[in-house]
Amino acid sequence: MTRFGIIGGGLMGHGIAVALAQAGHRVVVYDADPATLASLDERIVRALERCDMLPGDAGLVTARITAAKTLSDMVVRVDAVIEAVPERLDVKHQVLEALEAKIPAVMPVWSNTSVLSLTEVAEGMRHPQRLVGVHWWNPPYLIPLVEVAPGAETDHRFVREACDVLNGMGKTTVRLHRDVPGFIGNRLQFALVREALHLLEQEVCDPVTIDTVMRASLGLRWSAVGPMENADFIGLDLTRNILDSLAPHLSAAVTFPALDEPLNAGQRGRASGGGLLTWPPGRGEEVAQRLESGIRRNLVGP
C-alpha cells in the first residue's frame, strides 16, 4: 500500500494525510463539505510549519496530498481507504456503505474511530473482514502511537498489513487482541477524566488545581514510566494495599453533573468561550502551541 484515500478532511483526516505524506505515501482526501476541502491546503501548510519542516521538504510533502471533489474520483486513485468521519455510528455506516459500492472486495479499509466498537462500525458492510481499527492520536504527524484492533469478523491478514505499513513509517504500533470500545488509550484517559470530574463534584478542588496536579506530577512521570512498570517498581504488595484503601472511594459514575451544568448553560468549552475554565480570545491557540511544543520536548527525551 502506497496510495491512501482519506474520507473526512477535518482535524484528524488532514493530520493523518500529513503523517502519511511525510512517510512518502501519496494521499487523496475527500470530504463532502466543500469548505473543508477548500481549506485543506492551508491547514496542511500550517501543520508542516508546526513540525519545523524546511520549505523545500514541506513542498515535497504537500505535493503528495491532493483533494478529490467526489468519492468516485478518490477511490480510483488509491490502494487503501481510511475513514475519518465523525464518531457517530449512523454516519460511519452511511460512509462505508457508499464506499463499498465503489471499491473491490480486497481493498483494505481502516477506521479511525477512537471510542466506538469496530464490530458495530462494521455492521452492514458487505466485506467486514477488511475493516481494521487504526486509531491515530492527535496530532497524527507528531504523536508516534497508533492503536490497531480487529473487529469480530476482521481477517487478521489486514491487521498485519496495517501494522507493517505503520511500522514502516516509524510509528509505535500496538495491536489489540480483540475489539473493545475506546481501544486502550481512551479507556485509560477517560477513567482519569471521570475521577477528575468526581473530585469537582465532591468540591475537593477546582479545575485549575486538577490540571496543575497532572502537569506537575503524573504527567512528568508517565512519559517515562507507565503504570504497569510502576506497579512492579514500587511492588505489587504496595500497589494492592493502596488499591484496597483507595478503590472504594473512586468514582464509578455514569452520570456527570460537572459537565451537564455548564453544557445546560450553553458553555461547551473553548468554542463558546467558557466551560470548566474560561477561554478568552487567543487562549485556544496558546494551548495548541503549548501542547505541540510539549509533545516535541517529550519525543526528544533527556
TrEMBL record:
Domain of life: Bacteria
3-hydroxyacyl-CoA dehydrogenase NAD binding domain residues: 5-179
Domain 3-hydroxyacyl-CoA dehydrogenase C-terminal as annotated: residue spans: 182-278
Keyword Oxidoreductase appears in the UniProt entry: yes
Keyword presence, Oxidoreductase: yes
Pathway: Lipid metabolism; butanoate metabolism
Any Pfam family matching the protein: 3HCDH
InterPro entries, per the entry: 3-OHacyl-CoA_DH, 3-OHacyl-CoA_DH_CS, 3-OHacyl-CoA_DH_NAD-bd, 3HC_DH_C, 6-PGluconate_DH-like_C_sf, 6PGD_dom2, NAD(P)-bd_dom_sf
Family: Belongs to the 3-hydroxyacyl-CoA dehydrogenase family.
UniProt protein name: 3-hydroxyacyl-CoA dehydrogenase NAD-binding domain-containing protein
Organism (species): Streptomyces enissocaesilis
Lineage of the species this protein comes from: Bacteria, Bacillati, Actinomycetota, Actinomycetes, Kitasatosporales
